[in-house]
């Protein structure tokens, strides 16, 4: 098993989601008057980071076995199934399909004459 303990404080921050984003999402599901302690935010931050690392590591191992360098959305879904997070798979599959469709539409509209393309 890999040691995922960061050796420096800067390294610790690099592997964590921003605490402001976590706090904002936590507040969405609490009454307006609720307060969230700093240690609670940090605990959720650590759990989320560990979960992401756990799933990504499993997907990365699969890609390595298949001699691929890029982790795709389907690899993450496979990893979540393998790790027993089956209840997340269908909503994520729907989201991934919508994301891919939006990407196709963005690419198609970028290629049309007269379309607003900031990269052109």
From TrEMBL:
Keyword Transmembrane appears in the UniProt entry: no
Top-level taxon: Eukaryota
GO annotations of cellular component type: CCAAT-binding factor complex
Domain Transcription factor CBF/NF-Y/archaeal histone: start-end pairs: 16-80
CDD domains recorded: HFD_NFYB
Keyword DNA-binding carried by entry: yes
GO MF annotation list: DNA-binding transcription activator activity, RNA polymerase II-specific; protein heterodimerization activity; RNA polymerase II cis-regulatory region sequence-specific DNA binding
Family as reported in the entry's similarity comment: Belongs to the NFYB/HAP3 subunit family.
Name of protein: Nuclear transcription factor Y subunit B-3
Organism: Prototheca wickerhamii
Lineage: Eukaryota, Viridiplantae, Chlorophyta, core chlorophytes, Trebouxiophyceae
Gene name, Swiss-Prot/TrEMBL: NFYB3
């Amino acid at each position: 098993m890999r040691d995922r303990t960061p050796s420096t404080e800067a390294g610790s921050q690099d592997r964590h989601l921003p605490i402001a984003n976590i706090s904002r999402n936590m507040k969405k599901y609490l009454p307006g008057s609720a307060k969230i302690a700093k240690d609670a935010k940090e605990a959720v931050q650590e759990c989320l980071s560990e979960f992401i690392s756990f799933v990504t590591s499993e997907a990365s191992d699969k890609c390595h076995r298949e001699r691929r360098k890029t982790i795709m959305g389907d690899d993450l879904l496979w990893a979540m199934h393998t790790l027993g997070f089956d209840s997340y798979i269908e909503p994520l599959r729907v989201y991934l399909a919508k994301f891919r469709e939006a990407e196709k539409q963005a690419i198609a509209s970028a290629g049309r004459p007269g379309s607003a393309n900031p990269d052109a």
